[in-house]
Amino acid sequence: MNLLEAMEERHAVRDYTDEPLTADQIAALEAAIGEANAAHGLDIQLIHDVPDAFGGCPTHYGRFRNVRNLIALIGRDTTNGGKNGLDERAGHAGELLALTAVTLGLDTSWVVLHETDAHDGRWTLGEGGRMPAAIVLGHGTRPGRAHRSKPAEELAAVEQGSYAESPAWFRHGIEAVMLAPSALGKQPFRFTLLADGHTVKAEALEGVQAEIGLGIAKLHFELAAADADFVWA
């Protein structure tokens, strides 16, 4: 399974078995985490095969059971505020890791935890570090279900012409964005193809964890439009 196929297959799973991760799965995840940390300036950490990988921290939304593995998306806020800030970088890097986990035969779910500075030693928060979200992973007791999605016309805009007449790579990107998970399934983001025909403006809208969702959606768009000559505004 490749990453594009993993987008189609990945659905949130919140109930897990005791089956441990294999040595190969751990090695592959650690390698992917190392690349993500280097690319995004993050301090992502893998917690695996422990009782209560949440370390006692309450969840923002959703009931989870028997979570023994977690990717803690940790980093520092940047000085330039929201643009490519920690939440967006965590969303982008985290979704790549979630899709990688799916290609390794694992189930996943996004989760936001509270009180992450009190976590029974499950992860390390360095000075100035923050954990805006995490990825649960393991072997689900049952398959996840597809989440709802906004239609393409609500997620996309085109400065010249219509969405139906836009380049195929842009429409492929938006189709991948439609598969992007987001808090409460609200998908608070929009992608606009600018008048020059190769610049895309991606922006977060009002909504819960909108910047995290934007990072996730941008990763989906990039993977689907990888062969196109486009740039971010």
TrEMBL record:
InterPro entries on file: Nitroreductase-like, TM1586_NiRdase
SUPFAM superfamilies referenced in this protein's UniProt entry, alphabetically: FMN-dependent nitroreductase-like
Pfam families: TM1586_NiRdase (PF14512)
Signal peptide: none
Chain ranges of the Putative nitroreductase TM1586 domain: 2-225
Top-rank lineage group of the source organism: Bacteria
An example Gene Ontology molecular-function term: oxidoreductase activity
Name of the featured protein: Nitroreductase
